[in-house]
Amino acid sequence: MKTTHFLVSSLFVAGLSLLGHNTVVAQQYPVRIHSHNDYKQTVPFYEAYSQKVYSIEVDLFYKGKEFYVAHDEEDINPELTFDALYLNPILSLYRHNEGRAWKGSDEKMQLLVEIKSDNTDAFLKALQRKLNKYPEVFNPSVNPYAVRIVITGNVPEPEDFDKYTSYILFDGNLSEDYTEKQLERVGVFSTNFRDLSKWNGKGSLVKEDKKKVVAAIEKAHAQGKQIRFWGAPDGMTAWNTFHMLGVDYINTDKVEKCTAFFSDWHNKHYEIASKAVESVQGVTKTDRLDKTTHDFEGFKNEKLQLAEPVKTYVPSFESDGTDRPVKNVIFLIGDGMGLAQLTAADRVNKGLTILNMQHLGLISTSAKDAFTTDSAGAGSALATGEQNNNRHISMSEDGVAYPSLTDFFVEQGKQCGVVTLGNVADATPAAFYGHTTERDNADEITRELLKGKISLLAGSGMSNFKDRKDGVDLLAELQKEGYQVVTEVADIKADGKKTICIDEEMEKAAEAKTIGLLAETTARSIDKLSKSSPEGFFLMVEGAKIDYAGHSNCFPGSIVETLSFDMAVAEALKFADKNGETLVIVTGDHETGGLTLIDGSNETGYMTALYVTDDHTPIMLPVFTYGPQANKFIGKYANYEIARKIKALMKK
């Protein structure tokens, strides 16, 4: 046991250097986390303290005027004392943190002391003698940030509560009928979950058991107290369930995993028009964006709450899957959008226009040189029909340009447009008009616009045209080539003129007030191209910031951006129904974040979700098609096959 003592002492010293001399603000969780069976951890107390949990449990025996940390008497070790493992670390931390559990934080710490000895009175009198030596740490009348002491286990009878110092509180029993004075000494109600249910944490609570659990919660709350269930299942599904039911303390032996689950909570759940979804101030950002998008200002948390669901569109299906010729193609790409993002938005919104499309395929997304693609490799594959390396924009390993769909459609005598709710020089939109071996070469990419193949380009990124490294005044050069340049989406007109629209509002995250911006741009672009191109047109529309939300691990942002993209899909389907000769294709370039859906509510649409990474994942993506020849896109195939299928249809 000397090794254990040395390890504890070493980590104690390390803990002081890490925690005692820096400003540490305790983590705000949506629920109080209780570290149960702390003695089983490698470093008792510090493993829980390092996660900034509210409550830490310690099992104590009192023998020979000493307190020992152990669950069973036969496990008592003379080196594992209360003083060594708990008291001394707490005293040192309070001294270094200026009388608080965490320097700079008003959060308090609770120590739940379980009496394992038979002689409760002797135990408590000895404990209070020890704690009374340090009123600045344990007495709230001396220090308002004092450690909160609650006694559990062999708790004295309620009529004996007042025999002990007033700052010592006791674990309550829901079956007990406390007087008002006795109830003041109850710190929390702890209840054996197994008395209410045998649920193991898998799936969901059965109806009758749920009623019992809710009744226990309500009984505690009716007495103005909080509740903890011990003997409860200990995992994500259980933690989420207990939180949704209103349990105040989450009892866990998996402190690190539990705190990770509840940390940054506002970015892990969402519900439309809910008072329960807190309005969190601040911004959620990521450092995982590339050169053209790294200045993205982030998701403003308090502006992501929608007051009502987004309306969806149900198409007529008159031309869907028919063998009619295709005149127009509208290709919509949700950057970072996988099946989980679609499922989440669908369940939260209680419907998606995309999911009303009935022809469905699956695509693999690997780049030529990597199992997991970036947006350049995937966007280029979708644009050219060729498998590309990561970071390449529609160009081979040897620097040979791959013709994109816009090149193809221009040769067919059709006008082409590229729209993105992001930077026009970012990888996905760039793949439809530019060619380079490095996605960050924005100057090289945008110079391709001088070839005049694109009739419409809309997105953000004025810096790509002004203050360029190559010194070219690209706007002036483009105007010489016959382009008109506008800076607001509202100025995209069906006037037959080639147009570049750089609206910096499209760089910002979608919010309740701006959620329809991509849909408006799509509708105006369709109107412009359809009226000025009697031979037909090709339009690519990108929902860029579903990807940003994945990189930021911002679930509310993902919901809002996916719904924004869905509104654009609705505009494409509306036109397809009126036109009858338009093929609409909807997919993603890759999934971002490894989004996992934990649970939710069928009634309200509330959902809890987690990201498992802040990068792209290689999971297959759905492809939705609508209109003539839509049935040609069902089945499983590689992402670059989409462009090949489009070209094959147009050559008929």
UniProtKB/TrEMBL annotation:
It comes from the Bacteria. Keywords: Hydrolase, Phosphoprotein, Signal. InterPro entries: AIM6_PI-PLC-like_dom, Alkaline_phosphatase, Alkaline_phosphatase_core_sf, PLC-like_Pdiesterase_TIM-brl. Its EC number is 3.1.3.1. It is an enzyme of class 3 (hydrolase). One of its GO terms (molecular function) is alkaline phosphatase activity. Residues 1-26 form the signal peptide. SMART domains: alkPPc. Belongs to the alkaline phosphatase family. PANTHER family: ALKALINE PHOSPHATASE (PTHR11596:SF5). This is Alkaline phosphatase.
